[in-house]
Amino acid sequence: MADTIPQTPFALISGSAQWGLMFPDDVLEPGVSVRERGLVFETPWGPSENWQVIEVSGEGTPDGEPRRILNVFAHGWPIDSIDHEAFRKVAWILREAGVKKILADSTSGSMNRMLKPGDFIIPWDVLDLSQTRYSLSGKMTAACQSVQLFCRHLAALLKETAEELWPHPHRVVGQDQQLVFAHNWGPRFGSRAEAHAYKVLGADAMNHSTGAEASLAREIGACYVAASFIVRWQDGVMDRPPEDSTALHESLRHPASRISLRTMIRAPLSEQCGCHKLRTLTRREDIRFAQNQRGFTCG
């Protein structure tokens, strides 16, 4: 039996940055507990599993009030299968929950020789040639601008938090560097040819989630920011054999998870960023008029 979707304006999409941890328990962040765990929500495209509700005391929140954060494991991906529909399921659930602020964390591969494994990066733009086919709204029902796919206010707060917690000598690279993330559906890493093509097109890093999530967050009118750290160079970027990233990931997953959690604890509900104005819903009567003019019918 499916669970009832809770109402909260805050969501944290956990990704590979947190793999290997019991989140948020292992982070040991004061005033944080799990209210509900193992939730399953029904969507129009089937069930979505591995959700939980994180409860935060008023200590550390900008208004001094307790808050709840809706959290999903591994971007909502099934554990034992490949289902890219998961992105749409997650976005639909977040919309139904009334979520307005989203942080998603991940790991990524670098296509920029200046970005090294261990760098914490906050993307500024997306290169997604697929323009996710797993849309919620459809072209006729919403106009979604892409001038600011990542919330600049959440990104500034994320950078500030990361600079407090990210271990040296690794670096924090914020939006001032205007990094571009390329989207690769996965599950395999990008090929040498793909990495070269995306690099020529202007991408600095690549992963399997940020492009789709950024597009869907815009469709539901929510602010979105991505927190990622580099675990490897994409194949073909450096003239060397691929390196095992296991030890690096294990050493950085705790601070990465704490940065994500603490950023969402600190995030205000302000709309001064302007993200909510970048989606315009099409009036139903306008669609009817356009269809009638062409001799179509509209249900």
Automatic annotation (TrEMBL):
One of its GO terms (biological process) is nucleoside metabolic process. Gene3D superfamilies: Nucleoside phosphorylase domain. GO terms for molecular function: S-methyl-5-thioadenosine phosphorylase activity. Keywords: Glycosyltransferase, Transferase. Coiled coil: none annotated. Residues 88-232 form the Nucleoside phosphorylase domain. GO terms for cellular component: cytosol. PANTHER family: S-METHYL-5'-THIOADENOSINE PHOSPHORYLASE (PTHR42679:SF2). This is 5'-methylthioadenosine phosphorylase. It comes from Kumtagia ephedrae. The lineage of its organism: Bacteria, Pseudomonadati, Pseudomonadota, Alphaproteobacteria, Hyphomicrobiales.
